[in-house]
């Protein structure tokens, strides 16, 4: 049986009143705003701030057998992106264009 995904859907949640929905939404006029971001736990950083005490945990993988590093843009790309190889090294399709 075919399903019409454009048709309006009705379920038991639609019977909820507007007042009940407003209670679930936090009041925008309240002073409790969460400004701390999960990606930036130390808060807001100004440009040029000293980040020398910050440690980054990054796993660096070497280039795989089906990858190359373009000598023009220095990006690691898949072999399908190889345009040509000259005396300096491989060139990707984006840089050759």
Describe the structure.
The protein has 97 residues and is α+β, with helices and mostly antiparallel strands. The chain has a domain at 63-96: Wheat Germ Agglutinin (Isolectin 2), domain 1, CATH 3.30.60. It is built from 2 helices and 4 strands; from the N terminus they run H-E-E-E-E-H. It has helices at residues 18-24, 93-96, and strands at residues 67-69, 76-78, 82-85, 90-92. The strands form 2 sheets. It has a two-stranded antiparallel ribbon with strand order 1-2. It has a two-stranded antiparallel sheet with strand order 3-4. A hairpin with a 6-residue loop joins strand 1 and strand 2. The longest helix has 7 residues, at 18-24. 3% of the residues are buried. The mean pLDDT is 78. Pfam families: DUF4193. Residues 1-12 have a biased composition (Basic and acidic residues). Residues 1-43 are annotated as: Disordered.
